Amino acid sequence: MGDRACAGAGRGDRDLGGARPRAAARDPAEPPLARESTGGGVPLAHSRLGWLAKSPDGRDWLARLPRLLEECAEQWSLELEDPYPYAFASLAVPAGDVVLKVQFPGRESEHEAEALRVWDGDGAVRLLDHDAERHALLLERARPGTALAEVGLEAALDVFADLLPRLWKPAGEPFLPLADEAARWIASLPEEWERAGRPFERRLLGAAMDALCELAPTQGESVLLHQDLHALNVLRAEREPWLAIDPKPLAGEREFGIAAIVRGTELGHSKSEVLRRLDRLTSELGLDRERARGWALGQTIAWGIGHEDHLEVARWLVEAAR
Description:
alpha+beta; Phosphorylase Kinase, domain 1; Aminoglycoside 3'-phosphotransferase, Chain: A, domain 2; 2 domains; four-stranded antiparallel beta sheet
């Protein structure tokens, strides 16, 4: 990350004109899309995919989605069931013992197939096949598929403490470096904050940017990171008790790897619960607490403009500095 990107990040006198815009925010309140179906009556569109209709590329993908599902079903001889309702940038449709996942082409999911190949079923669902042209993945189905969020805070942290070291495989290319992603956040956050009408205090924005600027160039060993590993992205399964799904892979230091767990509301949304997640995982996994806190703060703001629960977490993390 260049020095210019971080100069004065938290002082409030930063030039806000040079930030690169980010993708449109994902708004779960978007009105439902017109529901289409395959010949077998499988609904393909959900209201949570509505944010994609704001861009030409997104509208094009949504228009092609029914055909993509049909082509993949024919290619892999699948009898598609009702799709899973939780969808923001892909559609996952179970089909017997497998799941067909068709992705909207994007930076965060670009190397999902490669991450699943690296893990090779060790703590994550297995990749059975991949159609790169259609951005389609054929995945092992986790049965019964109950989310880890349902077991409660302490039991879930037990699972994460066992699972995370298994996912932290040595990593480099082709995975996007965490430092590059942090640089993108730093460049885009001021403009996004302005565009959103300055929805929170500048001090909080500055604290997040300062953390990202300090942490990105001083990282430890680079490992494969699942940057959205919260308690809804770990499912109960038969082959193993719990399997991770939906990686948005990065290559970077381990301390970043707990950010989604710390910020997520799936295991409770109070200051004590957020700090319990931070303190217990850093202690049990031998992580630097301050670096983990800083990464969680940075990603929470980068992913959370417009989401009050994220902003509350960010404030708690600022108060928890040592």
